[in-house]
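STRUCTURE:
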């Protein structure tokens, strides 16, 4: 797989009219949709920050079409952004598809000139974040996501594969610089400084925000994770694995939107998901109603955070025991019962480092969603600014604790026990 040079002039943003002949020209997609192209129902549904997304329904089936725009959709053409992020999204799907089974959408077609992917339309799935705001439970979710991160990361790591192969993949994804730049700036720097791109619930959070930006211990901890983000090329990571990048039905979970993919720390994906569960927990008082105070639901969310980590841990260790074909921890170095015991202890120690990384990255992700450029609907949809600020204050306090007192959190049970005590109400 190599990156084709594409003349910029062939690119054009698709619209409802140009999409029809584009899809009709693809035999497989045409058959999947069924009926005459003129009868296909097409609508644009993109709610993300960056891209165009269309749903196309035919007589027999439906597809989803995602096209990268040459700028940040949420900001407009004044913030240019190379559309080749679509290439990396497609390359990520190709790289993990053999390992993650049905946990991603089926990809039908990628057009390198239009930077556009035609994929399975997920239905009746909804964005997980919306489900969490609505107070819905997904019994399989934590297990699916733990499995997902374990499989996608283990099989693209030096534990599973020869380093030569990983270096090739690494070199490919090293081109995704524009999106890594977004992460470096918007997650690991801007929230801790004055920046025109930042915003927060003002005035209620003004004093706390000033205090956090003056907290050098917090900033050093966040900067260390920013450094780790760039330095720890452990595996191919999704790069944006929050609850808006997961679509769910009652029984099924799918990971979408891997345009930020690159070689990085496994804890970055773990922390994205874990941190967004914590954000959901802290936002719940803002969604309580007379019929549902969300108290039991909050408990369920914390249980899912625990189940997610345990599922990841269990699967990653099992994969390591069965598929250690890579250059890291060569199997032949650890023969005999003593070797096996030493290897077992080393594996546990490695899982502990991933756990600590998960918490640190989770905290960075929580902070940026409250102080930075891109906020989350969990809080944004709380109309009462004072109530929203109360919820956000709890989340910030927890994130600060995770970053500045990491030794208090040795096991996921420590986090689950601490969260309810670190809340405003
Ligand atoms: P962006 O990168 O711009 O955030 P996403 O990949 O997150 O774009 O997609 C934006 C929205 O489009 C999602 O929140 C979801 O509502 C919808 N969507 C994306 N992929 C699919 C799909 N395969 N099936 C159905 N809806 C989808
Ligand atoms: Mg995206």
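SEQUENCE:
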């Amino acid at each position: 797989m190599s990156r084709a040079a594409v003349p910029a002039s062939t690119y054009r943003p698709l619209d409802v009219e140009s999409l029809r002949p584009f899809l009709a020209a693809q035999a497989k997609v045409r058959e999947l949709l069924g009926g005459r192209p003129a009868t296909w129902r097409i609508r644009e549904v993109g709610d993300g920050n960056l891209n165009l997304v269309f749903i196309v329904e035919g007589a027999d089936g439906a597809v989803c079409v995602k096209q990268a725009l040459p700028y940040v959709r949420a900001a407009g053409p004044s913030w240019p952004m190379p559309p080749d992020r679509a290439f990396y999204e497609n390359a990520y799907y190709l790289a993990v598809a053999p390992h993650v089974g049905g946990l991603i959408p089926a990809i039908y077609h990628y057009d390198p000139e239009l930077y556009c992917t035609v994929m399975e339309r997920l239905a009746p799935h909804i964005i997980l974040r919306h489900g969490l705001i609505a107070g819905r439970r997904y019994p399989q979710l934590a297990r699916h996501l733990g499995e997902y991160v374990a499989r996608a990361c283990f099989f693209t790591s030096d534990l599973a594969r020869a380093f030569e192969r990983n270096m090739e993949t690494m070199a490919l994804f090293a081109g995704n610089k524009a999106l890594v730049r977004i992460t470096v700036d918007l997650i690991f720097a801007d929230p801790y400084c004055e920046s025109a791109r930042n915003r927060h619930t003002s005035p209620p959070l003004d004093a706390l925000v000033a205090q956090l930006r003056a907290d050098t211990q917090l900033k050093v901890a966040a900067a260390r994770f920013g450094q780790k983000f760039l330095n720890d090329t452990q595996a191919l990571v999704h790069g944006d694995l929050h609850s808006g990048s997961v679509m769910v039905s009652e029984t099924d979970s799918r990971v979408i939107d891997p345009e930020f993919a690159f070689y990085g720390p496994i804890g970055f994906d773990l922390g994205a998901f874990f941190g967004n569960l914590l954000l959901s927990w802290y936002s719940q008082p803002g969604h309580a109603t007379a019929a549902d105070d969300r108290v039991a639901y909050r408990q369920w969310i914390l249980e899912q955070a625990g189940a997610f980590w345990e599922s990841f841990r269990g699967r990653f260790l099992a994969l390591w025991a069965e598929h250690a074909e890579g250059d890291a921890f060569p199997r032949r170095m650890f023969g005999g019962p003593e070797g096996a015991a030493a290897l077992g202890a080393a594996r546990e120690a490695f899982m502990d480092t991933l756990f600590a990384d998960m918490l640190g990255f989770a905290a960075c992700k929580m902070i940026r969603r409250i102080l930075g450029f891109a906020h989350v609907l969990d809080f944004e949809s709380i109309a009462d600014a004072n109530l929203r600020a109360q919820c956000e204050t709890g989340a910030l306090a927890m994130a600060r604790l995770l970053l500045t007192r990491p030794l208090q959190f040795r096991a996921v049970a420590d986090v689950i026990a601490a969260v309810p005590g670190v809340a405003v109400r």
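REMARK: The chain has a mean pLDDT of 96.
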